[in-house]
Structure of Rqc2 homolog RqcH:
Amino acid sequence: MSFDGAFTHAMVGELSRQLVGGRVSKINQPYNNEVILTVRANRKSLPLLLSANPTFARIQITDIPYVNPVTPTKFTMMMRKYLSGAILTGVSQTANDRVVHLDFTSRNELGDQVTLRLIIEIMARHSNVILIDLASSTILDTIKHVGSDQNRYRTLLPGGHYINPPAQDLINPFETAAAQAVVELVRDYPNEDVLAQELRHTYQGLGQDTALGLAKALHQTGEPVANFTAFFKRFDQPEPVLVTNDKGKTGFNAFPYGQEHVTSKSFDSLSAMLDFYYQDRAERDRVQQQGSTLIHVVRNELKKNRTKLKKLQSTLKSADDADEYRVKGELLTTYLAQVTRGMTSITLPNFYNDEKPLKIALSNQISPSQNAQKYFKKYNKLKASVSYVNDQMAKTNAEIDYLDNISSQIELAAPKDLADIKAELQQGGYLRDHEHNQRSGKKKRRQVSKPEIFTASDGTTIEVGKNNLQNEKLTLHSAAKTDIWLHVKNMPGSHVIIHDAAPSDQTLLEAATIAAYYSKARQSSSVPVDYVQVKKIRKPNGTKPGYVIYEGQKTLFVTPDREFVEKLSNH
């Protein structure tokens, strides 16, 4: 389902129970359209995510780690100015719309108490996070500025007057008298699918799944009004569940709607469910946004090298004809007396092919001897090119493999991993490095970020490099020679190190599963993973970052499992 009005109602209830009365301790904006308020409530620090992402707009408590930009945004600074230390006094919803109000009390520069409202509007590409002075409805700032050129009716700019989104002429299903309208609807529309559509045209904030779930509930035994009331009461005591239908499509519900032909997974809270549901989707979206330049550079380099490889293959194919030129040159030399100047062709018996006649083209502008030498020159040129072309093909294939590896790393990266990949592309000359010391003209030496750390079920530490710079540092510098190194076989993936000279079979399987998960084979089953002691790993001179060779390895076959890997994570 979508984050519709009914789901918003359930989320508002969950957030009210967990956060009201808490104090804002931190405010960060790790991504362009997302802000995180850390609220200290009930002796816990709870990160509240407000996302105005066009695709994944939502409000929830999140446990997914994030990395803040080096320099806070203007919106972050404005939020910190007004909300640092503020007390959250209430969480509410506008009717059954996807608009949530977070009300705060704080102190201004003079020490006077002020009331502020942080509004999140969950409206696809029009989603926004807006801070207003509640007494005057003056907009203090917004995460997205909306001028009159974008929306004549409703501008959202600092200093402007906040206007609520246009009201819908529909019934709020959570109002006391809302259930009365269903009696006629159930009578007039006996088909569940048709009834669901009519319910959406009558009641506010119903997504398609919610409307279908309600239609199904209304057709159960009992009075429609009672069934309607019971259905919406369940949003006040949610039982979060992910459902996957028989077509493989996954959605989330505040509680099971009684769908047929689905598999489901339950969660303790709506926020935990959304973390699970959105983690990969939101991470991919963030990587696509923040890594767009890297993706563009790698794609262009791949395209250039694949084009070059095709040309080299064509040249090599031409070289296959070299022997034909040699034969023609030798035939002309042998039967030179039969060739006269001015001829454009001659047919001679080919003693290399049972004396079969072979037609040889000639230039009428040069002598018979020069024609023969011309064929020998072509032969020698093509033969000389073979060695060069083979060398260039090997280098080009290595470059394509390297760029494929970088592409896979971007695809599997978290936003925090992009800095290392960017640095590597700069070091390799693929991307211009604008970060240099203006005085000395020398580039700043940056620290490679730390690998991901996991703990095996027996307590053994496992480290995972998420990019080539991390891989190289981990394998060649950090790991002990007796540690165990793992890597998915014959495809791009992370270097994985078990910090133990003799790990248990279980730890080996767990580390291999991690290696398979952090590889291009993430969506595959029965993935081969090689493992060997670090002392048997070698890096050839002049090779790209992260490239190593090894021998004496053994191989395990595992199936990547996200939930299993997350259980071992130290996040």
Notes: The two ends are 28 Å apart (CA to CA). Residues 178-266 form one domain. The chain has a mean pLDDT of 90.
